[in-house]
Amino acid sequence: MASVHKLPGSPWRAIIESAMYANSVKNTNLNELYEFSIKQPEVIVTTEPMYKPEMYGLPSDAKVLVSNDGRIVGRTAKARRLVREMGKDKDMYLTILREAIYNFNKKPSFVLEGIVGLHPDFMMKAYLISPQTDAKNMLDWAFNFTPWMKPWTDTYAKSRVLDEPDIMVLADQDWSHPDYPDGLIIVDEMQNCIAILGLRYFGERKKGTLTLAWTIGVRHNMVACHGGIKTIGNSTPIAVFGLSGSGKSSITNSHDHEGTLRSDEVVTVIHDDAFLIDLDNNFTVAIEPSLFDKTDAIKYDDPLIKYFYSAQNVAITKRPDGQVKIVCEDVRNNNGRCIKSRDMFNYADSCERPGKVIWLQKDPSMPPITKIKNNWLAVAMGASLSTMRAKGVENVDPKELEKLVIEPFANPFRVFPLLWDCQQFYKLFQTGTECYIMNTYAFGLAGGLIDIPKNLSLSIVTELKRGTIEWRDWKAFPGLQVPKNGKELFGQDYDKKYKPSRDEKYLAYLRNRMQDRINFLSNKREGGDMDSAIIDPIVAARAVIDHILSPL
User: What's 410-436 look like in SS3?
Assistant: First the structure.
């Protein structure tokens, strides 16, 4: 067994677990959830065949079901409250949770058992407790993770025992409170439980579950990773970390890198969203068997739809022949989503630890690729992982383009101290894993950005895998290196477009972006969540630019 039975260790856990045993709550399975889902008023039953429904014990003619939300079609980060940060408000939130559960138990509800984690080294039993009127979200949760059924239960029975209580997720989409118009999420990460109140979006259930899984992993000397990881041929795995829109899924899931890979360089994807690196045992494990991906690039009648289990927040049309079809490309709203199988490419559930880590940044001060030679600097650049607020390069206020959003290690779902993540990544780099920064956005000053195309980013990953890039020190940014032979590898105009210059305006721009990172990390230090050893390499690099600019 992967977890052990434990008595509730906190009032939060006691309240949530007790809710499972009320007369109004019954155990369910995927067949029952599918039947409830197709009768759920807001659910749309398409004529698109569900991918391999038999593996879940569903009818062979099961269809892809679509659920469309209203005003909110994405995650609501401001709804989250961490138990460890509540302080004097703890009793108030306990009162709110008790009242929420009391009302929750007044209506018919289900509890669904599942498994989080795909490898015997890390498998946790999990429970989702939701009203029967939320059957579609429960079904999606089972597709995204794994339901409590064979063959997964056989693997779970042989898995490593972790001294942890089971994961418990309670979700009530109908809850409301005048003081919390955007909903409320209460997280007790030490007791592996979460209450998601007043939020319909499926992603809250998915990421809430992952939040607890990542936290458990870190407690057992693993690295929590919100990113993608794959192998190319027989090389060591490559892991990429980036915020939404940075190219994380595109880079991870591309099987040919825009035609730059040879036939012997076969790509095997582990996952494009969530994994754990076990530092004690030197390998990486996937947490989910499926992909929860955006559908903005899915065309009408796209062949990829055959791999769908489910979809959310996408448009629907009915053809003259009666077929009810999915219309994606974010026509209805931004952030349309699907849950689909990894069968669309070669995949595996585990691999060795990554040999290369790439921080995907959308920071115009950085060239398309740099190599980090200092381990603490590698940690610092990951802890200050940055993206631009604006999505496009053209028709945008230049002042807006200068703003960076920083999300450490591209993981907005962290509930443990940031310093823990820093320490775990430092251990990883100490083992010999190399670290790079890849800017997938545009390069240059805000007034004259040069776009970095997707095919360039993919060709860079190809050459990183092959080890063909020669490096030279970047004199303006000690600890970083830039390609010495970029022109030979990436085209005659590479140096002209993407080579860092000594122009004073550019250096001032780079210095300001470095200062943004320093300010962010320094603020974390003042809160006791950062160490000077992590910040010092960026400060030292900024001092070099200060010296260069001082006579100007």
Answer: HCCCCCCCHHHHHHHHHHHHHCCCEEE
